[in-house]
Amino acid sequence: MTDNKPVAHRTPNFSAGPATIPTQVLERAQDELLDWQGRGVSVMEVSHRSKEYLAITEKAEAKLRSLMAIPDNYKVLFLQGGGSLQFSAIPLNLLKDGHADYLTTGTWSAKAIKEARRYEALGLGEVVEVATGKASSFTDVPAQSEWKLSDNAAYFHYCANETIHGVQIFEPPKVDVPLVVDMSSCILSQPIDVSDYGMIYAGAQKNIGPAGLVIVIIRDDLLGQASEWCPLLMNYTHQVEKESMSNTPATYSWYLAGLVFDWLEEQGGIEAIGNINAQKAELLYKTIDDSEFYHNSVATKHRSIMNVPFTLKDSELDKVFLEESEKAGLLHLKGHREVGGMRASIYNAVSLEWVQQLVDFMKDFEKKYG
Length: 370
Ligand code: PMP
Description:
It is a single chain. By secondary structure, the protein is of the alpha/beta class. The chain has two domains: 36-265, 3-Layer(aba) Sandwich (Aspartate Aminotransferase, domain 2); 269-369, Aspartate Aminotransferase, domain 1 (Alpha-Beta Complex). Helices cover 35% and strands 15% of the residues. The chain has nine helices and twelve strands. The protein has helices at residues 23-33, 51-68, 82-94, 107-121, 236-241, 251-266, 269-290, 318-327, 352-369, and strands at 74-79, 99-104, 126-132, 156-159, 161-162, 167-168, 179-182, 199-203, 214-219, 294-295, 307-312, 342-345. The strands form three sheets. Strands 1-9-8-7-4-2-3 form a seven-stranded mixed β-sheet. The protein has a three-stranded antiparallel β-sheet with strand order 10-11-12, covered by helices on one side. Strands 5-6 form a two-stranded antiparallel sheet. The longest helix is centred in the last third of the chain and has 22 residues, at 269-290. It starts with 22 loop residues before the first helix and ends with a helix. 43% of the residues are buried. Bound molecules: 4'-deoxy-4'-aminopyridoxal-5'-phosphate. Residues 17, 82-84, 108, 159, 163, 182, 184-185, 203 line the site of 4'-deoxy-4'-aminopyridoxal-5'-phosphate. 4'-deoxy-4'-aminopyridoxal-5'-phosphate binds at residues 17, 82-84, 108, 159, 163, 182, 184-185, 203.
């Protein structure tokens, strides 16, 4: 990032989240840890309302706006409570006693609708599941022609990338109501047109930085209609007024997110990182498809470029695969307990070289046991 220090050795880490953070970012944070800006204090130790800290938050927002080309009629919030608290906040802010459409394509979108249904039970609005993938497997997205869209929904919610099942929706659905999208595991991984969406939200611990932060990007016209029951901290309009500082924010995570945005800019921005992400995904899926030994069952056009689940021909070998991969210095390849098998999460900070090392290991493993 700044100096000529040798880059530290870092072990290839395919964790789904909290996930690997760019080495240069961690080095910069390390350099500044004890003595930030020559002040003899760490950034963690200063008031979130100090002008020095506010300079960090302003810069982080400006960088994110520039990276994602966020139009001026969108507000950007840096909140807490992870992606999951947004499942609760969204209906409270946007349902307006009306109804909303939800598409279920995996565990996370299923959790989102389940949470929204709590408000239905309280009589605060209705929730319609327009379609659901095969709950037993979630390997595809139901075709839009099969969705049972309701009339005049307040919004349409979906998850752009199902982290557990590796199912990604690349194009924003074409519906007449504001799209509310969970981009927790794919934000900043490819160029998108923010103006296609009413609201985008993403937990930080994959492509943004450490856990403890969730980013909400919301169009102006969706503000100002929260339910009177909406807790203040979850009220987007209130948080806009308070510039995400209704209470003490996750200051260190916010600072690190800013460093990740700097790093992303240095990589050439989202288009450049998107090209590398495409190469990484192609390399891994090709290795899986070319073999009789590995398998990924997600419909080709919905295969995630961020989370690649795969199984071995013989699940008895799962344990061996995990032990040997770890010995080979490839970390966190265990699939989520809901689906089993393996999963390689290949977020922005996972290099093409790391994916190449993984692929080389997979080929060797197949030779040995296939
Ligand atoms: N949505 C998606 C797509 C996720 O992957 C996750 C977490 N892995 C969440 C929501 C929930 O995020 P959190 O744990 O930050 O609440």
